[in-house]
Specification:
Blueprint lengths: L7 E6 H11 L13 H16 L8 E5 L8 H4 L18 H10 L4 E2 L6 H14 L3 E5 L13 E5 L4 E3 L1 H8 L6 H8 L14 H11 L2 H6 L7 H9 L1 H11 L21 H11 L2 H11 L14 H9 L24 E2 L3 H14 L1 E8 L9 E9 L2 E6 L22 H12 L5 E4 L2 H9 L8 E3 H9 L7 H9 L7 H4 L13 H26 L5 H21 L1 E3 L1 H26 L8 H11 L17 H8 L5 H29 L7 E2 L2 E3 L9 E3 L11 H5 L4 E2 L4 E8 L2 H9 L3 H9 L3 H10 L8 H15 L4 H8 L3 H14 L1 H17 L1 E3 L5 E3 L8 H33 L5 E7 L2 E7 L3 H13 L14 E6 L2 H4 L1
Parallel strand pairs: 1-2, 1-4, 2-3, 4-5, 7-10, 8-11, 11-12
Antiparallel strand pairs: 5-6, 8-9, 9-10, 13-14, 13-17, 15-16, 18-22, 18-23, 19-20, 21-22
Helix pairs in contact: 1-2, 2-4, 2-14, 7-8, 7-11, 12-13, 15-16, 17-22, 18-21, 19-21, 22-35, 23-26, 25-26, 25-32, 28-35, 30-31, 31-32, 32-33, 33-34, 35-36
């Protein structure tokens, strides 16, 4: 049938379909050989739905599915960096690309791609030809780049939302009609495709300029007329870059086509061909639906792994609403039977298990060791699980003498030689075709890395739980097992005891260790089977796949690298702190009028409340007055109690120095690893609800930076010989995110112009000029700026600034009057949390708020946490994304990433490469939000270098 007037052409954006299917579904594998087919399953279901829906008076007469041929096109010749920021396709998606082409042909739909051109160019060419022939065109895609084609008989359809995109919708998106979309895109650029555009000009500004001047060339020719000096200079300086950007975003509508338009006539699928393909892919549910539609017999197929995946693909393709991620009803599985677990003690037994693991394509792994310190722990054994109830333990380092604390150093009989077992395990644990499953996989990665094994690929059930249920409960294996599997694991204390009689795991008899260790692997596998299909309905796939899981090997490498510490510097500081404490103790005794034990809350309380008569003292169950930091902070601002205020202030100073001494200058020396000569902190990915990393053993996140003494501790963290420490720190990232999400015009413009945000706030609030501002006024504004993010109260601000509460509350009230957008953001966030039970970051991280509707004292805290979580969580997302991208970015440099401390990354780099490292790392950090979120304020990273962390920061 010749294409002409009255014909209707459907152009399906196949590349978009593939990625949408991949990210929306759990990873499914073909049962027979473990081939990844999750994206193919979703893609095939979408095509079948399309065929079912493509009927009626407006049905297409012609159709085609369009794909990208490769990542390189003619645009790379125009601008070599085009799409350079895009990460490579996931490993498990790559083998599915050709299968989606096969699926398209199996459904008897034309499958088109052209070397050197993007799918969008082919769509533009076909749309032009169809329009010139007098027909209509519907482009089935939501891609904004295709919106320049809308109009004159061409429309778009967002199939997932069933929303038609016409000229009005284009104006809503870009602020201009379809004919001027490329002008706006050329100005605004595109961080996803690395189209440079005009620096500092976003979509809204670009639309305003184009609407004012008519088109891009007119705007550039009249750039001198623009009143805003920065905008004017940008258009003048970057005119050629903007023109190049326009060439990049303009679709080529005369691309060479592999077929003629007339040949795209709709044809029904051939049932035998389609059934053969679906049979080969082992898509059980879809095969039955196709068989029913065409009246043919459906073959019997094995289930796709994991169970239920094909059904999930069908529901998703049909647009069914996702289920709530509450604890699901488990499919019947083998009951837990620890007596059925086995010990693997021979090469032949282990080889059989590993052969079965290759056949399954999935293997749960867990290690048993002598310590929680991964850098010092000795490997005792490895447990494996292939299916629910099918688990085993490989004992490797159990000592003779059983659970005798002072037993023999000799190995117990019946164990494989460790080197032999690890040599057999290594190929499977490193095999890309076998997915390893773990609970808190970072620990096992480090243990096995010390034995020369790099485990990949893997899934982590702890992080799956964290991505879905952050804020609802803990993510340890025992809690998850009881909550989601209704099974209480064997307590570790039953094997190793507690207190002084506690033994290490190598002293546990092998027969007792088998049940405990194999059960861990069995539980982990069952949790994975439960959690994996839940990720997509819980809208947690993106966070898990782009932040949580890929961060594991990054942190493992950082932790194993460790940071050099100069113990002589710590010793000198410890002595200096001891002297300062002694001086403060003398001062405190003088203020109190008598000497007393400053470290005794009981004695301090008696002096403050009984002898000095400070009102409001409250005794606890022990009969002693409460003298916590909050109580003392209140006393420092209390009117009519000048002596008590001085005493409370001095005690707070003493406590701060005492904590620095005990927690850092004394304790850090004990954390030095004798083998490496470095301190190796451990980061908890799931330690904070908002996504912030927590640091333990030692905790390097809480080194104070506000006091001079706290900052000095960083002097002890030093570079090795011939090396330098480099620090890169996000500047006021949480305020920048607040300005974006709360839409605060004054703050956004200040950040764009590089204005001192705290001075600007002080000027706005207190009506004082920025020039020559009193540092005290700026300090007050800074305290409010950061305090607001955490929902600070008048009491809290009074403590921070040590001013009367009424004055502090007045500052806060005036702040909200000056920046009403912040109050609006807070009210909207609380309302959202109350309605949905969670809040969400810009990147899709959900933080549940189960206490948001509580009454009483906890209500205020829950509201403050809900207000802060999207801000702090988004900042955490940004630095996680930067850390995930960093290893590849700095791979060619003699540098290692060592530490993450809140918004700061610390590196160790050869002395001659510091400039290159700072430039590269800054680029990664400042671009970390893209392409997921286009912030309306720039991210700025401050960098420095030095012989120590203190010098670099």
């Amino acid at each position: 049938m010749a294409f002409g007037k009255g014909c209707h052409l459907h152009l399906i954006d196949g590349s978009a379909f593939i990625f949408r299917a991949y990210h929306a579904l759990p990873p499914l594998t073909r049962k027979s050989d473990g081939l990844p087919v999750g994206a193919v399953a979703g893609f095939a279901n979408m095509l079948f739905k399309y065929i079912e829906d493509a009927s009626g008076p407006d049905a297409p007469t012609h159709a085609a599915v369009i794909f990208d041929h490769s990542s390189k096109t003619f645009r790379n010749e125009i601008y070599p960096a085009y799409k350079a920021n895009r990460p490579p396709a996931p490993e498990d998606l790559r083998p599915q690309f050709p299968l989606t082409r096969e699926a398209t042909r199996a459904f008897n739909l034309p499958c088109l791609e052209t070397e050197g051109f993007e799918a969008d160019d082919i769509i533009a060419t076909l749309a032009r030809e169809a329009r010139e022939a007098g027909g209509r065109v519907t482009i089935i895609s939501s891609d904004k780049d295709l919106m320049q084609l809308v109009g004159g008989g061409v429309e778009m359809l967002d199939a997932m939302k069933n929303k038609v995109i016409g000229p009005d919708e284009v104006v809503e998106k870009f602020g201009v009609g379809p004919e001027r979309v490329i002008d706006v895109q050329a100005l605004a650029g595109d961080s996803v495709d690395n189209v440079p555009g005009a620096p500092g000009i976003g979509l809204k500004t670009a639309a305003l300029l184009i609407n004012e001047y008519g088109d891009l060339e007119t705007l550039l020719a009249r750039a001198e007329e623009i009143k805003q000096p920065k905008r004017r200079q940008t258009l003048i300086d970057f005119a050629e870059q903007i023109r190049v950007s326009k060439r990049l975003v303009t679709l080529e509508d005369h691309a060479p086509l592999p077929v003629a338009l007339d040949s795209l006539e709709i044809r029904d699928p051939e049932p035998e061909v389609l059934m053969n393909f679906l049979n080969e892919m082992e898509f059980r549910t879809l095969t039955k639906r196709v068989a029913d539609k065409f009246g043919v017999a459906a073959p019997t197929l094995p289930a796709i792994a994991p169970g239920g995946g094909a059904d999930a693909a069908e529901r998703w393709a049909r647009g069914a609403a996702p289920a709530a991620p509450a604890a699901p009803v488990a499919a019947p599985e083998a009951p837990f039977d620890t007596a059925a677990y086995t010990a693997i003690s021979t090469r032949e037994e282990l080889a059989r298990w590993l052969e079965a693991a290759r056949a399954e394509g999935v293997l749960a792994v867990d290690t048993e060791t002598t310590s929680l310190d991964e850098m010092r722990a000795e490997l005792v054994g490895v447990s494996l699980a292939l299916a629910p109830g099918r688990a085993a333990y490989i004992p490797l380092g159990h000592r003779a003498g059983g659970d005798d604390l002072f037993g023999s150093a000799e190995l117990a009989p019946g164990q494989m030689p460790m080197e032999e077992a690890l040599a057999l395990l290594k190929p499977v644990l490193e095999d890309d075709s076998v997915l390893k499953i773990g609970q808190n996989m970072k620990y096992d990665l480090k243990i096995l890395a010390r034995h020369g094994i790099r485990v990949a690929p893997f899934d982590d059930t702890m992080l799956m739980s964290y991505a879905m249920f952050s804020g609802l409960h803990g993510h340890g294996m025992d809690e998850l097992s009881e909550r989601y599997l209704d099974h209480r694991p064997i307590p570790i204390k039953e094997l190793i005891g507690s207190g002084k009689s506690q033994i290490t795991f190598d002293r546990v008899p092998v027969d007792k260790a088998v049940a405990y260790a194999a059960e861990d692997a069995d539980i982990t596998l069952r949790l994975w089977r439960r959690f994996r299909p839940m990720l997509a309905p819980a809208r947690a796939t993106t966070i898990y796949e782009t932040e949580e899981r890929p961060l594991v090997p990054v942190l493992a490498e950082m932790e194993m690298a460790g940071v050099r510490v100069d113990t002589s510097v710590l010793a000198r500081m410890s002595n200096a702190f001891a002297q300062k404490m002694a001086g403060l103790e003398a001062e405190i005794a003088e203020i109190a009028g008598q000497p007393f034990n400053v470290g005794s809350p009981k004695q301090l309380g008696e002096i403050l409340f009984d002898q000095m008569g400070v009102p409001g003292g409250q005794k606890g169950k022990t009969g002693a007055y409460g003298t916590g930091a909050d109580v003392l902070e209140d006393i420092t601002t209390m009117e009519g109690q000048p002596v008590a205020a001085r005493l409370a202030s001095a005690v707070l100073d003493w406590r701060a120095i005492s904590k620095l001494k005990s927690t850092y200058t004394d304790a850090l020396q004990g954390h030095l690893n004798p083998e490496t000569g470095r301190v190796h902190t451990s980061y908890s990915i799931a330690g904070a609800n908002t996504g912030r990393l927590a640091s333990t053993d030692p905790n390097l996140q809480n080194i104070p930076v506000r006091s001079e003494e706290g900052r000095r501790i960083r002097e002890a963290f030093v570079a090795g010989p011939g090396m330098r420490i480099v620090s890169l720190d996000y500047s006021q990232i949480e305020l920048r995110i607040l300005a974006h999400v709360a839409d605060l015009p004054e703050m956004k413009e200040a950040f764009r112009q590089g204005v001192d945000i705290h001075a600007m706030t002080a000027s706005e609030m207190f009506g004082v000029p920025v020039e020559g501002m009193d540092p005290g006024v700026r300090r007050q504004a800074k305290a409010i700026n950061f305090g607001v993010i955490y929902g600070i109260s008048g009491f809290g601000l009074a403590r921070n600034l040590r001013i009367p509460r009424a004055e502090a509350q007045g500052f806060i009230d005036r702040y909200f009057e000056r920046f009403p957008g912040i109050r609006r953001y807070m009210d909207d966030t609380i309302a959202f949390a109350k309605e949905h039970g969670y809040v969400e970051t810009l990147f899709g991280r959900r933080i549940h708020t189960p206490e948001i509707n509580a009454k009483g004292p906890g209500a205020g805290f829950a509201k403050r946490a809900a207000i802060n979580a999207p801000i702090q969580g988004a900042a955490a997302d940004v630095i996680r994304r930067a850390m995930v991208r960093m290893p590849e970015a700095i791979a060619g440099l003699p540098a290692k990433m060592l530490l993450q401390v809140h918004d700061e990354l610390i590196f160790e780099v050869e002395a001659g490469a510091t400039g290159a490292l700072i430039e590269t790392a800054r680029r990664v950090m400042e671009g970390a939000a893209d392409p997921a979120v286009r912030l309306s304020v720039p991210l700025v990273v401050d960098g420095g270098e030095g012989a120590s962390w203190a010098e670099a920061h």
